[in-house]
Structures are given as structure tokens and as C-alpha cells.
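Morning, I've got a small favour to ask if you have a moment. It would help a lot if you went through both lines with me. I owe you a coffee for this, so here goes:
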Amino acid sequence: FQRERLAKEQAEKLLESKSLELYRARQQTEAERKLLLDAIGTMRDGFAILDPAFRLLIWNSAFLRHLGLPADEQVQGVPLSELLENLRIDDLCDEAGRRLDPRGLPRADVDMQVRHEARCRDGRVFLICFEPSCPTGRPLTLRDITVRRKLEQDLEAARKHEAIGTMAGGIAHE
């Protein structure tokens, strides 16, 4: 009887110790999760993590803002293709400039970085970057590059004007 009572006490102490260990690990995990979500929330680029079927698992407010959705919109589990319809994409190109079907998401079995440039009907331009998959999902960034593209176009126009001016000056000198 004494041996059983001693074994029971040891088992209870072990259970209490393991329960405390589990509680502390859970607290630490929750603190790290909050830290990660807070960091993601401060990003200016839209950020999301997708499951293997390209449904949203985690996202930041910039992701919803770029899509024109309210910050409190619940999109957990919504397919990315459905959300991208909000961008009203007219033109979608890959890195080589080849046009793609606006529903053309990378295949789930392609495990490398995939970048698309999306031109929207309202004039905005987005860089959609699918990162390689990881065990928890597939990260995606959505960056508004409208201003950058406009500056690149302005620079190109200025270079053309400079070339025309140089050529006109050369002709006038002749």
C-alpha cells in the first residue's frame, strides 16, 4: 500500500511538473505569435500566408488595404483568387513580361519564388511575390509599385527628350 501511495505521489508531481512546463511553453508560444503578428502588422507591403490550396491563413492590414477591403474584414480560408478579383486586374505579367491569365496563380507544386506584376483598371500597379513554400504555408507579399512605375516612365521620357535634344543640337551644328 505504501509503495502504491509513493508511486501515485511521484506520478502527481511529474504530472504537475509537466503541466507547468506545458503552460510555460504555451505562454511563450503565444507571446512569440503576438510578436510576429505585431511585426507583420507594421509592414507597408501587404503580407499573407496561404495554405497549399492558396487560401488565406494569416494576413496584415496592408494586404486588405491594397485589396480595397476594410481592415476588419474576415478573410480566413478565402481563396486568394477570389480576393484578387477586388484588384480588378487588367493585365498580369510574369518576370519575363509574358502576359498571364489574371487567375494564373503559381501551381502548388512549384516551390520557388514567383513574381507577377499586376496592372489594375484604376491605374495601380502591384508586384505580387509568392515565396517558396514552408511547412506552415506559402508566404505572399503584395507591393504597390504604382509610383515607382510612374517614375520609371518619367525617367524614360526624360531620356528620350535628352536624346532628341542632343540629336537636334548635332544637326543644328552641322
